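Hey all, sorry for the wall of text incoming. These are the two entities for the joint prediction.
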Amino acid sequence: MSTAMPINLPRSAGARAWAWFTDQGAAIGILILIFVLWEVLVRGLNVPNYILPAPTVILLKIYHDWGLLMSNGWATTQEVLLGFGLSVVVGIPLAVGIVYSRIFERVAFPLMVSLQTVPKVALAPILVMWFGYGILPKVLVAFLISFFPIVMNTVIGMRSTEKEMIYLVRSMGAGDLQTFLKVRLPKALPSIFGGLKVGIGQAVIGAVVGEFIAAEEGLGYLQLIAQVRLDTPLLFASVVLLSLMGVLLFNIVVWIERLVIPWHRQITEQTE
Amino acid sequence: MAAAECSFAGHLTDGISRAVASSTADVSVEIVGVTKHYRTAKSGTVHALDEVSISFKPGEFVSIVGPSGCGKSTLMMLISGLIPASSGTIRVGAKEVRGPVREAGIVFQRDVLLDWRSVLSNVMLPVEIRGLDPASYLKKARELLQSVGLAEFEEKYPGELSGGMRQRVSICRALVQQPGLLLMDEPFGALDALTREQMNLDLQRMWLRDRNTVLFITHSIEEAVFLSDRVVVMSARPGTVSEVLDIELARPRGASTRSDRKFVEYIERIRRRFFAQGILSES
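and here's what came out:
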C-alpha cells in the first residue's frame, strides 16, 4: 500500500475511510462503470433475460429467491468447510512429518507431488460412484484440491528456519519438541496462512465441482437446475453468491491470520 | 547434553568450584589437538581443522582472525558443543565438551531474533527454554537492554528495529544468563562501519563490567586487535593456528587507541602474516 501512513500514527475513522477510498477508489469506480455499461447495453439492445440478464434483474432474483439461495448456499458452505478442515487436519501434521522424518520425506513427499499432477476434478465422478449423492464426495473433492497448497506451504515454512536459530535454541538446551513449538512452528505460520488462503479458495471450487457431478442440494446443484430451466438470472445469482461466499471465507482466514500473527503484519507493512 | 561427565583427570578441584557457580564464574577453555572432518554433498570430505591446540584463560578476550573457510566458525561450534570434534579434546571449565555447553552464550552474524516475540521476550528466551524462574532474570534482561540503549524498545517487535539494534538485542539474549563464556561468530560482520565501531565500544564496555571469557571471530584484523587480549591468527583450510599475538594496549580502548603506534604495528604484523601465507597478495 503505497499511500499507507506510518503505522505508529493513530488515525481517525474518517481518515482511515478516506485512505481506504483513495486506495480502492479506482477499482470500485471501474466496477461500477462495468455494471452501468452492462445494464445500459442489455436494456438498450433488448438482450433477452435467458441470454444475459441485466445486473438489476440478477439483484431482484437474489432478493426473491433469497431463501432458496441461502439454504443451498449453506449446504455448499458446509462442504467447503469440512473439506478445508480435513485438509488442515491432515495436511499440517503430514507436512510436519515430511520435515521431521526421513522416511516421510523420501516416500510421502514424492508420492504427493506426483499425485498433484492428477487433475483432482477428474476424480470427482469416481468419488461420486464410490460414495453416492451425499455430502461425502463433495467434501473429498474439496479436500483433495485444497490439500496440496496447504502441505507445500507448511513444508516450505517449516524449512525456512535459519540453521543458526536451531543451533541457538539447542545451545540453550532445547529438545526437538521445544525447538518445534518455540521456533519452527511460529516461524512457519506466515507461510502456513499463505497456504490456507490459497486452500480455502480451492475448496470452494472443489465443492462446486462435486455438486456438478451429482447432488441434491448446494449452489452448484442449483446452477444445474437453473441451466435446465433456462433460468439464467438464477444461474447468475448463484455465481454472485458463490463469489461472495469465497470472499467471505477468504477474509475469515485473513482475519484469523491477523489474530494469530499480528507481528507478521507489522513487518510486511513496514517493508512495503 | 550439558550433563557431560566431569573429567576427573587433572582439573578436579578447580572444576568443582567452577561448576557450582557456573553461570557467573568465568570459564577457561582448553583445546587440545582438535581435528575436524565433515562430509558435504557437494565437495565430499572437508578437512576443516587440523590439530588445533589453544587455551583461553578465564576472563580473557580472544579473537580469531583468518581467511574465509579456515574453520574458525567450525572451531566455535566445536567449543559450544553443538557439533562433535573428529578427534582431540575440548574442555570448557573443567568439563570435557560432549554436548551443548551450558556456560556458553552465542551470538551469530545473523541476529536470528524471533520476529513474533517482543524485544524483551527475545532476550528472555534462554531463561524460558531452560525453564528458569523468569522473575529473577527480568531485572537482568532490562538492565542489559538499558545498557545498550534499548530500554524504550523492550515492547517493540524485531521487525521495527534497525540491524544494529537487532544485533544488540541478540547480544543481550546471549548475556541474560550471565554466561561464563561468550562465543561470537562475526557478530558485527553485517553492520555498517560506523555502527560496527560503536558496537566495538559497547562490547568492550560490557566485557570490562562482566569480565567473562570471550571468543570473538572476525574477518577484520583491526576489530580483532582493538577488542582483544590475544589474537589468534589462523591459516587457510585445513585450519591451523599460525600465530598467537598478545595485545598489550591499555583499557578501556577508544578513539586514541586506533592511532596508537603499537595498535598500528599489531595490525601490520598480522597483515604481513597473511601476505606470507599467500592469503593476501599484491600481484
